[in-house]
Predict the structure of Class II glutamine amidotransferase.
Amino acid sequence: MCQLLGMNCNVPTDIVFSFTGFAHRGGRTDTHHDGWGIAFFEGRGVRHFVDHQAAIASPIAELIKRYPIKSTNVIAHIRKATQGSIALENCHPFVRELWGRYWVFAHNGDLKEFAPQLSGPFRPVGTTDSELAFCWLMQNLHAQFGDVAPALPALRAALERLVPQVAAHGTFNMMLSDGTALFTHCSTKLSYIVRQYPFAAAHLADEDLSVDFSEVTTPNDRVAIIVTEPLTKNETWIPFAPGELKLFVDGMPQS
Amino acid sequence: MCQLLGMNCNVPTDIVFSFTGFAHRGGRTDTHHDGWGIAFFEGRGVRHFVDHQAAIASPIAELIKRYPIKSTNVIAHIRKATQGSIALENCHPFVRELWGRYWVFAHNGDLKEFAPQLSGPFRPVGTTDSELAFCWLMQNLHAQFGDVAPALPALRAALERLVPQVAAHGTFNMMLSDGTALFTHCSTKLSYIVRQYPFAAAHLADEDLSVDFSEVTTPNDRVAIIVTEPLTKNETWIPFAPGELKLFVDGMPQS
């Protein structure tokens, strides 16, 4: 099983604090050492970093811990290979373009007997069940809406119909974003927290590091962090229910 | 106008030496300070770095100069904006997936009255003429060959038909790779060199840096470097003819 980390905010925010704790699970405080990756939206653009080294040994992970890239939507993943060899093309997150937007996807879990027929141009490059599921989702969204991007409620309804069809094949904790919203689905394990005014201090569970968010934020900032295992010890994380698909916009879960 | 750098090799090779000279043109020895990017194939996977800071000011460029990522196909670009604002989504190289392979594309030049109708899923995310041309090429390759990748000679013949249709609109120096071969097209300015046994020393034109390739290679290595302006002073670079489309495989131009 892998681990997922997502961030969705109302203003561009850096993920250095959360990524620092998360990256330690890539080979130090946990056994997820078969690669890692992170994608940051900046406007419509994406910075995409993948590495098939363990996150704790990766010079690129080291750079990201030091270099505060600001983003409103981030998806990160550390990998423990279940399907697909340890290779760069099997590292999450995966990126595709649809409707003139980049889409970023990462998955934690394992799918059994999931072998849909793919038609059209969304094809896996690597050999993971995860990338296959992502291509299948993209293909079906494109088939349903054609060449014009739907409004968010229609997109959400489509994913509420499609995602359970994948999840029926096993464990499908996943994150998907086009840079305007973050879709998350929980099969077994996912928690989130919304940090907003009044901000307090947080202490990482995986490393002896604290940050006082009141010193680095404005009263208008709102940041949702979604993760496989809570990252801090002194905050209250809200667990997802199994089967729950949750949409985050501007740092808030949408009801 | 921008500048392009490509590498095609028969064994995975690092591009630290060439990229070091090239990156200096991103704001120091030349005026290309509107962003930069580089993509490395590793097997079927791609490491893709883009930044809308000048290459000389970018911590990510600094990392790449120090961290020897080994690859058989690399495309790099430094940008001087002509069309499209200075934004991450307008930085080359661009990446799309077709036939279960990532395709990487970068362009130097300026296209006039190039506004083809796009149908299907290859759409620009940013606002450059370059990304539009890339999407048009992908769309036409997909239309011609359907869902099955053609053999290299058929792909080359298709590009020999398609590329001049873009180049008719202005300057279209470009590089395109799927990780197995590197296609290059010259409208106005492109040169290449093939480094192979017996290797000699090379001295960068843009910085006081030399490398003796005989110390870091084996007799079987072969590396083609393709660039807008020759990178070294003491080697003989071969200029492309205007309108020439050249295909590199395993470090050699294919006749």
